[in-house]
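To: structure desk
From: M.T.
Subject: fold request, one chain
Message: Could you run this one when you get a chance? Sequence is below, nothing fancy, just the single chain.
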Amino acid sequence: MSNPQRIPGILFALAAGLMWGLVFVGPLLLPEYPAALQAFGRYLAFGLIALPLGWFDRARLRQLSRADWLEALKLALVGNVVYYLLLASAIQRAGGPLPTMIIGTLPVVITITSKLRRAAPGARAEAPLPWLRMLPSLALIALGLGLVNHAELAQLRSNPDADLARYAFGGLLAAGAVACWTWYPIRNAEWLRAHPDRSPRGWATAQGLATLPLALLGYAATWAWHAASGSPFAMPFGPRAADFLLLMFAIGLLASWLGTLCWNEASQRLPPALSGPLIVFETLAALSYAFMLRHSVPQAETLAGVVFLVAGVVWAVRTQPVAVSADAHPN
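Reply: Done. Structure tokens follow.
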């Protein structure tokens, strides 16, 4: 992979991380809103935003087969709806930093999973990144995540009012979100790199359109459940309707569509074993936003962890694949 491909890919991954970090803000700004309503509200907004974009991209969307639309539906369900439902629930139960740090293990988990996973049939084989070359960067990232986790857990233990069971359940939900978003970028990258002639923007729009019926069904089911259970929560938009709608559309546009577009651009330029570590940008952005909302400065241990995270990413992006023979590239 040439440097002209790598540098734009890294910049697109950075932009995606900055956008995706915003998804950790919603549950903190709207703590009284159920996680399901926030998840379905966000992706309902994403789907509605995708409708006019789909009109402009209609020529590209017509190129997609029924199998492509089924793949977009799977990606939308697992990587969008289920992922954010678990993440929002985790943040509401454990606060911002702990789920952020659990999600922060994604660079390590995705890198290891992508190296253990064989390429899908018909997908372009990548030049391998040897374990010995990747281990230093993975170790730095793991050390950074460990330091930040230790600082946050120490602060949690010092709070006598902390509900450890609630925090533990939030951590479990965040682990489920990690599983969803380990599957999503690998599967998404496989499709994109198997279709280098397709537009990453059109694929992001296709996922938005596929998300719309899922979000509509989920929002309607949530509304029906609140009505049937006699919940005092004011449906359909809650007690702070203007704030809810503004935040959902902002996250839908910036995090869901623009973030997906930037990540698709990165995925076409970078192998999964390299793009995995770059998801650490999302962790760094989310941490920054969380501390801004706290109106506090990170502890020295947290800052040291961030330094190790960045060092691990820099090491990873400087790691070169080994050369392979031409017959290892079926496409």
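Reply (cont.): Confidence is low (pLDDT under 50) at residues 323-331. Let me know if you need anything else for the meeting.
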